[in-house]
What we know:
By secondary structure, the protein is mainly β. Helices cover about 15% and strands about 40% of the residues. The protein has helices at about 1-20, 125; strands at about 30-35, 40-50, 50-55, 65, 70-75, 85-90, 95-100, 105, 115-120, 130-135, 140-150. The strands form 3 sheets. The chain has a 5-stranded mixed beta sheet with strand order 1-5-10-7-8. A hairpin with a 5-residue loop joins β7 (about 95-100) and β8. It starts with a helix and ends with a strand. Residues about 1-20 have low confidence and may be disordered.
Amino acid sequence: MKPLFLAATLTLAAAAAQACPDYRMGGDVDYGYTGDILTHAREYSVQVGTDYALASCGIQYPGYVSAAPTMSFRLARMDHYPLEIRVEAPCDSVLLVNAADGSWHYNDDGPYGHNPEINLRGSALLNGRVDIWVGSYDGQTCYGDLILETDG
């Protein structure tokens, strides 16, 4: 009986791990940009929210995201450009970002209400692949816009 229980436990643990944000999965769309190109905002229509609670993944922030990033970007020549990542959506959304250096960044409510905003600066954070999860605070879904823009 123990081997079956152990196998079932390992299967459940593997399934739970797949529900947590995993940058290795890559986003649905992978774009390459430089800082000067992003001085003109880029907008992407995205679905906000999904089924997996960040808290169940050991992440101490509220919100629900998918296992795979919503979008992935390959960025270059970002050394002198601060990057603003924001969401505009009718529902209460959250942002989770895995920067190029592997650090994680989260925001729930930006300066304009329920729309999150994350500002990153520096070549270590931005030169390379940046993965972005657009989720919802309470698990509800809606459609919104993911916006990336640098300050030129």
